[in-house]
Amino acid sequence: MISIDFTICGVEELDRELDGRISHVVSIGDPGWPENPALDRIAPGRVHRFRFNDVIAAVEGHDRVPAPKDIVRLLEAGDRIRADDPTHLLVHCQMGVSRSSAATLILLTQEHPGREMEVADRISKRRPQAWPNSLMLELADAELGRNGGLIAAGREVRRRTASHRPDFADYLRGTHRRAEVEELDP
């Protein structure tokens, strides 16, 4: 699936992005959030839904941390998507920044070990504000036996984003995501 066309977006972009070119969707939302009716435009078997918070560790008020079972389900969805001959994959989360970019990196490299940096480059160019969720990548890296390949690729995407969006990196320093920023410091 490494060469498939893809879109990463947030919930507010769904109406615009869900057009005739989209063949499959991975929808990642916060627990308890309502389903977006725009997803009804895609055949039910081609929409893969996930619910967990955008956190990299347990945080008060966010009780659903990405877990190994979520990554296994994501990889299973990747298998089904590939078997269905996809033309354009849309991956969305709340903001189209963290969970969706991590999921895209995982899915596009699932069957292509060693090409993580190539996909990281595509993600950075396609979605310059991407900041892949490091926990999701750590879990997928372990599940796929990538020996740090997914982790390094995610770090590279975050490094690029921090270089052209230092304000965003500074904001994240004040949150539970500060470790992702600090690992970029020289």
UniProtKB/TrEMBL annotation:
Annotated Tyrosine specific protein phosphatases domain residues: 69-128
Coiled coil spans: none
Gene3D superfamilies per the UniProt record, alphabetical: Protein tyrosine phosphatase superfamily
Transmembrane spans: none
InterPro entries assigned: Prot-tyrosine_phosphatase-like, Tyr_Pase_AS, Tyr_Pase_dom
Protein name: Protein-tyrosine-phosphatase
Native organism: Minwuia thermotolerans
